[in-house]
């Protein structure tokens, strides 16, 4: 019996495990970002004066995981095989 | 006249086209940071650190979460393309497209509400409509690129070793998300 999957869709076990690991990392980063977003919201609606420095620091903290994990900024100074 | 030798050591390419593509995209992203930086600065110049009380902060939070979810699906789409999972790539890029459209619908609804409270002729209205408008234009252009990538990817054009089209588009999409991470608190939360 032949598989319906195309050659690209047939993945070796080690590649599948690596993909699963990457997907899990994406989920962890996402969970962190959601928590940060909610914390920002709560601080924004509860602090009536002087919240802007805290919120800007939280925005910088929140942008870093996106730039690092999702945008892979380190690719700029790493060779392909090191990724 | 003898031409200069262009020979390279074995195993070394004359140039690394993927690396050049990445540097080019990052230079573009940095230049975009200046644009958004100028907009953020102008908001503080026009309105100080006070915010408009009629802003719908809950809607702002909801559309922020929608954009974050779209970044997750874009990441998953890119990873799927990188590892050759064609079905995962198509599904996740499609999900990103839908979430981007939901975000734009949310911004459209917010504009409808905001126009009644602070039209663009007011100081805060100028900052609000300019920032959200410029950002929404970036979202729209990202959606167009994602749609092109999705259509081209349906016939298996992107493979394990050839997915720069996906990677570049997804990087741009994440940048749009990063811009919103700063715009959201600046417009909706600071005090």
Notes on the protein architecture:
The complex is a heterodimer of chains A (83) and B (191). Chain A has 83 residues and is an all-alpha fold. Chain A has one domain (10-77). Chain A has 2 helices and no strands. Chain A has helices at residues 13-46, 52-70. Chain B is built from 5 helices and no strands. In chain B, helix 4 (123-153) packs antiparallel against helix 5 (164-189). The longest helix of chain B is centred in the middle third of the chain and has 32 residues, at 86-117. Chain B is elongated, with a radius of gyration of 20 Å. Chain B starts with 16 loop residues before the first helix and ends with a helix. The model of chain B is unreliable at 1-8 (pLDDT under 50). Classes of the chains: A mainly alpha (83), B mainly alpha (191).
Per-chain topology:
The complex is a heterodimer of chains A (83) and B (191).
Chain A: H1 13-46, H2 52-70
Chain B: H1 17-47, H2 57-82, H3 86-117, H4 123-153, H5 164-189
Helix pairs in contact in B: 1-4, 1-5, 2-3, 2-5, 3-4, 4-5
| Shape, principal axes of CA atoms of chain B | elongated
Count up the domains of chain A: 1
Report the helical percentage of chain B.
over 70%
The major pleated sheet of chain A works out as:
none
Q: Which spans of chain B of ≥5 residues are poorly predicted at pLDDT below 50?
A: 1-8
The class by helix and strand makeup of chain A works out as mainly alpha
Task: List the helices and strands of chain A in order.
Answer: HH
Number of helices of chain A: 2
Distance between the termini of chain A: 37 Å
> Strand-residue fraction of chain A?
under 5%
Number of separate strands of chain B = 0
Counting helices, strands and paired strands, the structural category of chain B is mainly alpha
Rg from Cα of chain B: 20 Å
Largest sheet of chain B: none
β-strand percent of chain B reads under 5%
Could you tell me the mean pLDDT of chain A? 85
Could you tell me the radius of gyration of chain A in angstroms?
19 Å
